[in-house]
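Please, structure for the following, as tokens.
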Amino acid sequence: MKKFNLRQAISQGLVASIIALSVSAIGMVELFGERFLINGALTMGQVLIFLATITFSYQMASKMKRESLRDGLLSGLVIGLVNGLMMWLFIWLEGQFDVRSFFINISPRLIELLTFEQARESGSLLLVVFYALTGMAGAGMRFIPRAISSAITGALTITLGVGLLSELIAERIRNFFGVSVMNLIFKSDALQLIPALLLFGISVYFLYRRHTKQSDGAKIAKPNPLEGRSKLQNYILSGFLLILPLLLGTYLTEITNNVGIFILMGLGLNIVVGLAGLLDLGYVAFFAIGAYTMAILTSTADLGIAQMSFWAALPICVGVSAIFGMILGIPVLRMRGDYLAIVTLGFGEIIRILALSDMLKPFIGGAQGILKIPKPAIGSLVLLQPQQLYYVVLAGVLLAAFISIRLRDSRLGRRWMAMREDEDVAEAMGINLVSTKILAFGIGAAFSGLAGAIFASKLTSIFPHSFSLLISINVLSLIIVGGLGSIPGTIAGAIVLVGLPELLREFAEFRWLMYGLLLIAMMLVRPEGFIPSDVIKRELHADDEPGDAEVAQA
């Protein structure tokens, strides 16, 4: 589309209004409206009701040529007006009828938030005006230089993110710099206006400089964001990771440890799914096997058989998980796609049901699980605190990442990727599919067993209900969202899908709705993931690249 299309703009505005009305009717706007991002200026509820308009306006304008500024702004204006008029109609109907008898979350407080705590008539008109302006602003972002628009978008994300996590950040600033410094930046768990503007301006400056430098070297292949760094950058990153628990505190370090365990599992499943192309939905089984092996070997309760130390039991846990992974690989050698997914799903459920069964209760405790699993210890130092366990998790993640990188770049890694593209062609080229698949399952399971062993020692007790199918789904989701076949993508996916919901616990059950919306948005807007591998990115964007005929004409 190169010109203004009234019908399409109206339809986009109606869709945006349905989204705004839905989040209002289910109570999200009212709940989020009480949470200021910028003190006295901007709430999460306001961001929520205008976000769809901005997004749809930008997307519609992005289909136009950069010279079509008037048509783009007109499209944004129509989308905003349609959305605003629908919200005005909603406010009017609420005043005429007892809407709350049908939708209990449509309360007087919601109407106050939508009308900016003004009179109903004037506040409704003000809402329509804001919708029109935000629609034009969203469309206008398309027509400013790419470097500036990217810098503004990134700076907004950073500023709103700091405002969203202001309670946690304020606590750390208070501990390090005192209450007076904290009060200069934050007030009532939100950013102060002046610090927010300064943060936005500084972010715009640095992001703009970064984007222009990348544009200057556009013809040079971009290195992976977490690879190909200089020695100085590696030293800085290593130092930052070592002092991270001191900066985060107990609660945030505990969340970081949970993220690290999922990164471990994600790196293993990334080998199976991302590199080898084998869809494994029973991956949690190896996580459970590693955890139960650690519990049986180290527990001081009656079910413990050896009372070994954590470090002595750890390689056994990894080895047992790897063996079970290879055992699983044998009966599914000739299966692909959905059939493979169903069989591995069944394997995961079999392990969970066996852990719950009375048959194995004398050995692994059944529904009562296994208790009194000791924490890791170094000499006489027992790693009790999350800040101490962090280094065990970090060591596991670094080891798994190093092995993953070496495997990906090895001959075996190339065999996995060839098999992922086409098994028949790979076999015709001389690749032994049997050994290649079994190695993928075994190495992937070993990483999951390592994560399970650390998990069991971290909790000091395990139960069958901790190893549900949802674990496998979450790990698969994080490698898809992060980027299939990408090690940095796996890390980014774990941070977003595991760490972020934990940080948003104040929003109760709506945090899972936000989680689902993020997954949907990622599949629609960026199907290759946050940090995709070069191969996957080329495959998904092959149609976007100019063909030979277009290059010849150019």
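The first helix runs from residue 6 to 25. The chain has two domains: 6-216, 257-478.
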